[in-house]
């Protein structure tokens, strides 16, 4: 008969059903752990601050308990209850209006992994089923209900909710977590929130949480970024509270390499074993790399080497951590190694920098790089680039070693390189294609995108380019106002180009919505096709994959693959034989289901889904590819006499990526899903098209 944590000064919490006994017992067991978090002793002060003020800016070390505890601290506050609130100037005649609002607290995260993991953890801590009092909502996955009172969502999903609920009437409070990451979503959410708390929803509570000092700009009473009349800001100056959760940070010794390293995966391998032999247990190792591929290759290398270790050396347990990893495996990093005398080596992307705190780490190995979205205005394309981290990120990474005791950080770069790093990471909104952001703003009533209250404005030029892109997609009218097509596009949880493809596919004449959905779902899931090592396996793979090799290119190949997979009675065995990831396929089917739900409201009755085994005729393939062209005219290239490809817009050289079925082939023109820049510029997700179709699109506009 344990006790349920009822916070002081609050209204009673959720009623515990008898069958929830086990959950309740678990919550009870977790309580002492919560009480040890640095933030715990400040809960009274945090509650008091929010009773007095509407905006709270909270600074706290990663791992101090901000994300897991804030919702629990606040959920039982009186102001959390759903009640009548005044919406200022809510009526057409300019008078105030009263509506019911509140009852739930939203906590936004830049990453979906963080949102789902946190919700899972907080549900355990509160002793409830995930999706009841505690839930989450991320793209293509929603585990929340009417009952949900603490809801974790990606910043993108909160923006999505604002389409239907621009005043965020569901919520009494919005917590913007990891604000220092400055993702586009975070920046837009902050701009809108500022408008709301100083405008139509004066009672809404906003909590901005950050792990680094760069929050000054985000404090809502910052004069330099305010556009409104001074008097109004004066009036609300008193509404902002600032709070700092003192961290528990032990000293971390930092080492640099004397010379620049050529291959950081190899350098990481050596460092891990050097450390493993030199340092006693306990003390796990956290390695920062840039992406899944690197992580999986280092994992294999470490596991191979570890086999030849002598019995006197502790064992090694390698645990990867990246977004595309299934939730069960992500959860694994939080658990102890189980087997005694074992060291955990966690290989992570920058998720572990501030989003996720891995316990037990005493040694950090930092490759000094990160994979970032980057817009290249010269060629008008967005691509993923591996770039050096900022100083601020490097310090955060080193800090992960000093959470539980004095630690060490090994940087796989020289001290000189460190000194030359930029102080902070450039906010995403300044380095990505802003078309999505513009559509987001316009669909939520902010037509004048130059005048929006940005933390950092992308600037006139970038906004101009974004407007142009949206215009060519057909989302705007001649006076740059969002039109019906634009609104339709904004309702889809996809970038504007893909939204345009789906809408084109639903049009009569094209009539290939099911096919377009299958392909988009396949494009959105990572690593469907596995690459075996060894010549023999590779031959087997090539032989097996002939079944869905299509001369039209990757889009139609993926479609054929989905159809083949679905028609199999023994899906898992079939997937294995064809070196296709069964898990990724299951994921794909899940994404597809959600996309279908999103499209029902604008398509109306469409043709029935094709039977799984239906073949993709050349005519159907053409219709599908023409739809993709409607969204990807800016991603086309034509063959030039020397046998290489040059982009139609910008005339830049681009090669077909080795992963494509069209690799090494010569076709008149190509459309591609993605532009990646590794050793050189590559098109990934490539299909063959005719120049005539490209021309039609360019002339016809959206
Ligand atoms: P902050 O937001 O300040 O970075 P968090 O609230 O995310 O801190 O984390 C507090 C503690 O809870 C950390 O020690 C972390 O390891 C633990 N924790 C967070 N999520 C999980 C989880 N899913 N499973 C187990 N422990 C977790």
TrEMBL record:
Plastid as UniProt keyword: no
The reaction(s) this protein catalyses: ATP + H2O = ADP + phosphate + H(+)
Keyword ATP-binding annotated: yes
Helicase ATP-binding domain location: 47-217
Record-listed E.C. numbers: 3.6.4.13
A molecular function (GO) term: hydrolase activity
Domain Helicase C-terminal span(s) in chain numbering: 271-445
Gene3D superfamilies for the chain: 1.20.120.1080, P-loop containing nucleotide triphosphate hydrolases (3.40.50.300)
InterPro entries to which the protein is assigned, alphabetical: DEAD-box_helicase_OB_fold (IPR011709), DEAD/DEAH_box_helicase_dom (IPR011545), DNA/RNA_helicase_DEAH_CS (IPR002464), HA2_WH (IPR048333), Helicase-assoc_dom (IPR007502), Helicase_ATP-bd (IPR014001), Helicase_C-like (IPR001650), P-loop_NTPase (IPR027417)
Domain of life: Eukaryota
GO cellular component assignments: small-subunit processome
GO biological process: one example: maturation of SSU-rRNA from tricistronic rRNA transcript (SSU-rRNA, 5.8S rRNA, LSU-rRNA)
Keywords per UniProt: ATP-binding, Helicase, Hydrolase, Nucleotide-binding
PROSITE patterns for this protein: DEAH_ATP_HELICASE, HELICASE_ATP_BIND_1, HELICASE_CTER
Protein name: RNA helicase
Species this chain originates from: Tuber melanosporum (strain Mel28)
